[in-house]
């Protein structure tokens, strides 16, 4: 059997941005950091996220049927750490509501989705979201590579 560490470090070679997935159930907003995000289709406009079976977010998206993908800026490392449970103290976070869905303020993009379909895949569930609304802002992205946060060095853009 293949070693878990080999698989994890191999997947960590794929440099990504960082998002926070947000949703609301019974008037309570919930956020979770995720980098398993991709664009799927232009017509209709679909995106995909992957949520672990142990994440509280899983049931919440099943219940609400909606979620937002908030693409974080380089200034939002702490936001990512907060919603990944890497900062322990409780923090009050203010969300901005778009079409009734909580979104993260100051993100490069808020992509508001309605669940189109879901598919269990091993220990994760893939949610395909149909995009309902988008809010965009200028800025540079927070990045994630080999398990570490980073930012783009502008002069190294090729
Ligand atoms: P919880 O553990 O309940 O919440 C996560 C944290 O967010 C907690 O500390 C909580 O206090 C805080 N929080 C939530 N809502 C609020 C609120 N309204 N106000 C204030 N604080 C709040 N996991 C995946 O399943 N898929 C991925 O693609 C993925 N990618 C990741 C990428 C990165 C870079 C990192 C660091 C982690 C990633 N994870 C991913 C792991 C995931 O973020 C954590 O396992 C997370 O803790 C699971 O969230 P949960 O839904 O169980 O929520």
UniProtKB/TrEMBL annotation:
PANTHER family: FLAVIN REDUCTASE (PTHR30466), FMN REDUCTASE (NADH) RUTF (PTHR30466:SF1)
SUPFAM superfamilies: FMN-binding split barrel (SSF50475)
Gene Ontology MF: a single term: monooxygenase activity
GO biological process, one term: pyrimidine nucleobase catabolic process
Domain Flavin reductase like, residue spans: 11-151
Keyword annotations of the record: Monooxygenase, Oxidoreductase
Protein name, per record: Nitrilotriacetate monooxygenase component B
């Amino acid at each position: 059997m293949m070693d878990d560490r080999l698989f994890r470090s191999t997947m960590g070679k794929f440099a990504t941005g960082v998002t926070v997935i947000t949703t609301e159930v019974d008037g309570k907003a919930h956020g979770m950091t995720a980098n398993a995000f991709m664009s799927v289709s232009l017509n209709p406009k679909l995106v995909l996220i992957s949520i672990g079976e142990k994440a509280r977010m899983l049931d919440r998206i099943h219940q609400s049927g909606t979620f937002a993908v908030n693409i974080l800026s380089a200034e939002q490392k702490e936001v990512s750490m907060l919603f990944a449970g890497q900062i322990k103290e409780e923090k009050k976070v203010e969300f901005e509501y778009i079409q009734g869905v909580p979104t993260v303020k100051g993100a490069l993009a808020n992509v508001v989705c309605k669940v189109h379909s879901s598919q269990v895949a091993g220990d994760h569930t893939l949610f395909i979201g149909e995009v309902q609304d988008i809010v965009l802002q200028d800025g540079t992205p927070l990045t994630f590579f080999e398990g570490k946060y980073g930012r783009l060095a502008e002069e190294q853009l090729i």
